[in-house]
C-alpha cells in the first residue's frame, strides 16, 4: 500500500517543528506576560456542544466522529428502511398527486387553505388507515413522524404545483418532482439517524469549548478569567494555500468583564507578538457587530442580518459585484443594497470613518453604541501607540461567526497575500447556551500555520536553531561505550546535551554524522582513554583537541 495522509493534513520535519515551536514559545511568553493562564480541552466534544454555534456554513465544516463499538448493528433496521422506502414511497406521492387532481376537478382554482386541508387530510389519516397503503409502507411506521414533518415543510412546494398544469399533466415533470422529494426525505432521515451513529465531533475552534469549560468549572474559576489555549482544531474545508483541515489555534480570552480596556489590551497583544516575531507592518482590522446590526436596521434588512454580514465579509474575496449578487440571492432587496454600497469603498482615516458612520447610523441606537465603543478603543490606542502594527477600522469586517456581539478583530500580513493570520471578537452571552447567563467574554486567536507561512516567505526564521546535542561520543566498542555513557550521565545532570553514536561504525561515518548535525564537540574514547581515566575532546569548528579528566570535561562543555 502506498503511504499517504488525508488531504488538508501535513507531516512536519524536525526543522519545521523547531520553527513552529519558536512561534509557539513567542506567543506563549506574551500570553503569560499579559496575565493569561493556560488550559486545555479535549480534541473532540459532544456534537450538541458544537452544532448550531457557528452558523450554517460553519456547521457544515464540523468533522463528526463515528460511534465506536457495536452501534452499527443496532442501526441495521434503520438502513434496511431505505430499501423498503424506495419501493413504497412513490405510492404515497401518487396518492397526494391524485388528491390534488381530484381537488382541481371540483375546484379549478382552489385556495391555499383548501389545498392545505386536502394535504393534511392525507397526513392525518395515515397511518391509522392502514388498509389503504401497502404492507411494506406500514413496516416503516416508526419513521412516519419524520416523513410527515418533512412533507409538511414542503407544503409550500405543493401549493404552486397544484395550480400548475406542468405538475398535474406532465409525467416527466411529475416523476422528477417525486424523485426530488424522495432524495429530500432520505436526506432528512439520514439527519435523524446521524445522532445515533455519531454523538461526538472534532472541535471546530477553541472558543465554544472554552465557553463549555467556563460553565462546567465555574465554581473553580476566579472572574474575570483570563485563559490562553494552544491546541489543534479541525475543519472539513477545501484545502488550499494557508487553509488546512487540521491546524493550530493560539487563543487568548477573558470572560466575566465588559470593560473596553480588554479590547485595547488585545490590540496591544497582537502588536507585541508580531513585533517580537519580526513581522512588521501588520494591519489589525477592527469593526463592531453592533455597527453591522445598525446598518442592517437602517436599510430595513434586520431579519437578514446573518446573510448580510456573511456576504459583506467576502468583499475582499469576491468584490463588490459578487457581494451584491450574493445579497440579492439571499433575498436582500436592491434598494437596500444601494443604501449599503458606500461601505464597499469606505475611505479616510479612523476618525473620518467614524464620523461617516455616525451620519449613516444616526437613527440606530445600537449602531451608535457600536461607534462609541470603536471610538474608545481607537482613542486609547492613539494615546498609547503601537510598536509596529497599524490599527484600521474596516466596516466590511464581519468574521461570519454568529456568536460575536461587539468588537471584531482580524489581522492581515501587509507584505504577504495569504488571508488573515489572526482574528477574534467579543461575545456577550456565549456561556448562556450552556446555562451560565450574563457572562460577557472577548478573545483573539493567532493562526499559527499561516503565521509560519508568512515568516517562511519573508525569511524571518534566521534565529531558529534545530535542537541538537552539544557533544557526541564516538563509539569504538562495548567497553568504550559504557565508559562514555558514564560520562554522559554526569554531563546530562549538568544540563549538557549529549549523545553516543549508537553503532560501532567506521570513524569517518561517525564524524560525518556529527558534521551533518552541526554538533560542536566530539569526544573520542579509546583503550588509552579508558586505561588513563581520561577523555579526548575535539572542537569540530577549530579541530583543536584537548585531553582531560571528567571534571574538566564537564567544566569545559558547561562553559561553552
Task: Name some characteristics of this structure.
single chain, 560 residues, alpha+beta, BirA Bifunctional Protein, domain 2, Rossmann fold, 3 domains, 5-stranded mixed beta sheet, 24 helices
Describe the SSE topology.
Layout: H1 14-33, E1 37-38, E2 44-46, H2 47-50, H3 55-60, E3 64-65, H4 71-74, H5 76-106, H6 112-125, H7 135-138, H8 144-153, H9 155-163, H10 165-169, H11 171-197, E4 200-202, H12 207-216, E5 225-234, E6 246-255, H13 261-276, E7 282-288, H14 289-298, H15 305-312, H16 315-329, H17 334-340, H18 350-360, H19 365-384, E8 390-393, E9 407-413, E10 420-427, E11 441-447, H20 448-457, E12 471-473, H21 478-493, E13 498-500, H22 507-516, E14 521-524, H23 527-532, E15 535-539, E16 545-548, H24 550-559
Parallel strand pairs: 1-5, 7-8, 12-13, 12-14
Antiparallel strand pairs: 2-4, 3-4, 5-6, 6-11, 7-9, 9-10, 10-11, 14-15, 15-16
Helix pairs in contact: 1-13, 1-20, 5-6, 5-11, 6-9, 8-11, 13-19, 14-19, 15-16, 18-19
**The CATH topology of the largest domain is what?**
BirA Bifunctional Protein, domain 2
Number of strands: 16
- Which class of the largest domain in CATH terms? Alpha Beta
Strand order of the largest sheet: 1-5-6-11-10-9-7-8
Give a quick account of the main beta sheet: strands, pairing sense, barrel closure: 8 strands, mixed
- End-to-end separation in angstroms reads 48 Å
Percentage of residues in helical conformation: 40-55%
Mean pLDDT: 82
The parts where pLDDT drops under 50 for at least 5 residues are: 123-168
Please work out how many helical segments DSSP would assign: 24
Number of domains: 3
Would you identify the CATH architecture of the largest domain? Answer: 2-Layer Sandwich
State the shape.
elongated
What's the Cα radius of gyration? 33 Å
